[in-house]
From TrEMBL:
Coiled coil: none annotated. This is Urate hydroxylase PuuD. Residues 305-394 form the Cytochrome c domain. It holds the Pfam family Urate_ox_N. Signal peptide: none annotated.
Length: 395
């Protein structure tokens, strides 16, 4: 069986599974944050006497629902409790296998860019895994240290670490590989927060109740702190999951800055949603999020080519496209590892090339992310010729 065929199907199945369990996890997380922020005093005084701190009434799907939250714990635990954990764990598992398949097995295409840093496949994989492990260790140490007792100081230090990580990743890997590893680092932190802090804290709460002890409030405080971090990491992580479609960002010379500014935008927008749930949404927070998005877009604007050469004819640029782009973008790709043209894009005929002139210029000349890992050895002079051809009208 063709290896490329197997890889393609594994990619499909893992990506689909990752999306399904990720939606389940993030959906549950967003729902419980909404739920906590919409609790009202119980309507029935008897509920309050039982230790219920708040309740929410809702209508959905043709029925009425009520959710109640105890201040600490019920007098008697029910025979069965539902734990929201496997949604997070399976998101990490499927995401890690997808990372291995796309970025480690395919490191020469998706992860390594010799123009950034010439790495061997084992070196690139080791560095990538190292960032995932180090990201958690640094973050967890900060949270458990005395610095973690001040949320403002802790938030500043976590942001500073993210700045350093984004800069380092974008100076080690291809832009595409750097972005996904930044997101994978945050996603790993989110899941390990659940595994090492949030779930153990909940288990201790249940155990204390079963043994008739008063639960140690530190577990609840730690769990809440990590949950808050998780919700603000969510939108930046979701951005990195789709970032491989946007070469204008990850292929930009300031790609690490763009990664940070759009991550800040996502975090601010999530802050606004949380505030909105509480009924005290500050429009300036939402406006700041959109300002960061606008700043990212302005910074990513393509710069005029510094090449002062004259126009380039189609006859001059066509051999470049055929030699550097068509090995992958053909009905039957000749480049090893490609079973079908990426995104179904064909660049074999003059009509196909002219129709995709803007995309060719953006990918090969402006962002310089194609060919991936420069598999076909396109030269800087050839990239400049493509830019001049496009600037001259792509005729």
């Amino acid at each position: 069986m063709d290896a490329a065929f197997v890889v393609d199907w594994l990619n499909l199945l893992l990506r689909w599974a990752h999306m399904i369990v990720g939606i389940a996890w993030i959906g549950a997380s967003f729902y419980f944050i909404w739920l906590d922020n919409h609790l009202h005093k119980p309507l029935d005084p008897a509920d309050e006497a039982k230790g219920i701190g708040g309740e929410v009434w809702a209508v959905h799907g043709g029925g009425f629902y009520t959710a109640k939250k105890f201040k600490v714990a019920p007098e008697r635990l029910p025979p069965e409790l539902h734990w929201f954990k496997w949604e997070a764990y399976t998101t990490l598992i499927t995401g890690f296998f997808l990372l291995c398949l796309v970025y480690y097995y395919g490191a020469d295409v998706a992860l390594i860019d010799p123009s950034v840093l010439p790495l061997t496949q084992p070196q690139a994989i080791a560095i990538g895994l190292g960032f995932l492990v180090l990201g958690w260790l640094v973050y967890d140490w900060l949270c458990r240290s005395t610095l973690g007792q001040d949320d403002l100081v802790l938030g500043g230090l976590i942001f500073l670490y993210c700045v350093l990580a984004a800069w380092a990743l974008c100076h080690i890997f291809s832009g595409r590989g750097a972005y996904i590893h930044f997101g994978a680092m945050l996603g790993t932190i989110m899941v390990l927060n659940v595994y090492f802090v949030i779930i153990p804290g909940q288990r201790e709460l249940v155990k204390a109740k079963e043994e008739g002890r008063i639960p140690d409030p530190v577990h609840g405080l730690r769990g809440r702190q990590r949950s808050v971090h998780n919700t603000y990491f969510t939108l930046p992580v979701l951005f990195t999951m789709i970032s491989n479609h946007y070469a204008g960002l990850y292929g930009h010379e300031w790609n690490w800055v763009l990664l940070l500014t759009i991550s800040i935008a996502g975090a601010l927008i999530r802050v606004w949603f949380v505030q909105r749930h509480k009924g005290n949404a500050n429009p300036l927070v939402l406006a700041a999020g959109f300002v960061f998005i606008a700043f990212t877009a302005l910074l990513a604007l393509p710069r005029p080519s510094a090449d002062g050469g004259g126009p380039v004819s189609f006859a001059e640029v066509q051999p470049i496209i055929q030699a550097r782009c068509a090995p992958c973008h053909a009905a039957k790709p000749t480049q090893e590892g490609f079973l079908a043209p990426p995104k179904g894009l064909l660049l074999e005929t003059p009509a196909q090339i002219r129709a995709m002139a803007a995309a060719i210029n953006q990918q090969a000349a402006a962002s310089r992310v194609m060919p991936p890992g420069n598999l076909t050895n396109i030269t800087d002079a050839e990239r400049r010729m493509i830019a001049r051809w496009f600037k001259g009208g792509a005729q």
